[in-house]
Specification:
Bound molecules: adenosine-5'-diphosphate, magnesium ion
Number of helices: 14
Helix content: 25-40%
Number of strands: 17
Radius of gyration: 22 Å
Oligomer: single chain
Strand order of the largest sheet: 5-6-4-1-7-8
Structural class: alpha/beta
Length: 381
């Protein structure tokens, strides 16, 4: 287990806590579409306030190029104020003397990514952010795989007082057992579109797991390597030569379309030109179910089909219900996978829902993340 200082171990009375949160909420025309991330941060915020400290919250929102008014965190401050039933002061910037002069129990800094210095982990920028607090808390697991100013530069400036928040702690507690002696059999299901972004985690997970079930567009490079026709299916070029194929389970049938018609075929037939593989087929689901049901640990990332379209959502929904009814430990990570679970109404049936897609995969790949590494080691103070 990673021995990092936790929020409970910080002396908080009279402190000004600089807290990195994940307020990267979906926005449409200034309206928050889903406030789950704000709700998830309330525990850490309330705890800090209850201990007699004030809090300065900081987050990024979207991918602005410079200061884009549309990506201001102002709507978030408003919603957070409603949730906390307490005044939230929205800062007009994230650094500078005006921001430093603000008084209040809860201050929300403006979008960190209005400054390219955030992603560049610029030392002077980190120093200006650090000047806004007397200690640091990171509760943004979803950003911990990025070595940015707010996630790495700032905590390093609080060598004795940089702690993980409750959300971060929960993520690490849920994911760490997958790295060290997980209950067996341990199965992973990986789907999605871009295998290039997941090949690293696939390589690193394979020695640790008993079987890897590959769905979505992940399967096509393997079919191609076997000389199977894949038609117009999405298939990124990746090097799969050194992977232990005996542990990898591929779909035996797939749902294909030529944009007019939908058909289910056995993969051995090959996918004709002009047709694209969109989902795993019913035989695959039935076969996988037999194994997955017996799993003691299941990790799932990435829909096994183009689940956004009802005609190709069946495989993903079936995987969601297999996980939901599995008696073993279940962990699901990834924005789209979580969305699929929610769509199926099964979120509450999963052991751990990881808020960080990229972060959870990288944590499983490397066993640590830059944003966690930057925090104070427990017992070192
Ligand atoms: P997550 O957000 O859970 O990590 P990804 O972002 O990696 O998942 O993958 C989700 C995307 O993969 C979805 O948009 C889905 O439509 C796409 N996808 C799944 N299967 C296929 C397929 N066979 N061909 C093309 N895209 C696919
Ligand atoms: Mg995604």
């Amino acid at each position: 287990m990673i021995k990092k200082m936790t929020l409970r171990e910080l002396s908080l009375s009279g402190q000004k806590v600089l807290m990195r949160v994940d307020f990267n909420v979906p926005l449409k025309k200034g309206q928050i579409q889903d406030d789950e991330r704000l709700v998830a941060s309330l525990d850490s915020i309330r705890y800090v306030l209850s201990k007699g400290a004030s809090v300065v919250l900081m987050s990024h929102l979207g991918r602005p190029k410079g200061k884009e008014a549309d990506l201001s965190l102002a709507p978030v401050a408003k919603r957070l104020q409603e949730l906390l039933k307490q005044e939230v002061i929205m800062a007009s910037d994230c650094i500078g003397p005006k921001v430093a002069a603000l008084q209040g129990k809860i201050i929300l800094l403006e979008n960190l990514r209005f400054y390219p210095e955030e992603e560049a982990n610029d030392a002077a920028f980190a120093k200006q952010l650090a000047a806004l607090g007397t200690c640091y808390v990171d509760d943004a697991f979803g950003s911990a795989h990025r070595a940015h100013a707010s996630t790495v530069g700032v905590p390093k400036l609080f060598p004795r007082a940089a702690a993980m928040g409750f959300l971060m702690e929960k993520e690490i507690q849920a994911l760490t057992p997958l790295l060290h002696n997980p209950p067996r059999p341990f199965y992973a299901i990986i789907g999605g579109a871009k295998i290039s972004t997941k090949i690293g985690v696939i390589k690193n997970l394979l020695p640790k797991i008993d079987r890897l079930f590959l769905g979505g567009a992940m399967a096509y490079p393997f079919f191609k390597a076997q000389g199977i026709q894949i038609g117009n299916s999405l298939c990124e070029e990746v090097n799969i030569r050194d992977l232990p194929l005996d542990k990898i389970v591929l779909p035996s049938d797939v749902v294909i379309t030529n944009k007019q018609e939908v058909r289910t075929i056995s993969i051995r037939e090959g996918i004709p030109p002009g047709w694209q593989g969109m989902d795993i087929g019913p035989k695959t689901v039935a076969d996988w179910k037999q194994s997955l049901e017996k799993g003691a640990t299941l990790f799932w990332n990435g829909p096994v089909g183009v689940f956004e379209e009802a005609a190709f959502a069946k495989g993903t929904n079936e995987i969601a219900s297999i996980l939901a009814s599995c008696k073993g430990q279940t962990v699901v990570g990834g924005g789209d996978s979580l969305a699929a679970l929610k769509q199926a109404g099964l979120s509450s049936k999963i052991g751990h829902l990881s808020t960080g897609g990229g972060a959870s995969l990288e944590f499983l790949e490397f066993g640590h993340l830059p944003g966690i590494d930057a925090l104070t080691i427990r017992d070192s103070v």
